[in-house]
Amino acid sequence: MSDNELRRAIRVLRERADEARSHGRPEDAEGIEKTIRDYQDEMTHRL
Length: 47
Known about the structure:
With 47 residues, this protein is mostly helical.
C-alpha cells in the first residue's frame, strides 16, 4: 500500500470506528482502532 493509500485507509477507518461507537458497537470500534494503530505503526516504520 502506498503512503497515500494508508492515509486514506486510516481516515476511512476512523470514520467507521466513530460510527460503530455511536451505534453502540464498542467492540467493533476497538477492532477497527487496532487496525488503525497497525497502519499507523507501518507508516512510522516507513519514515
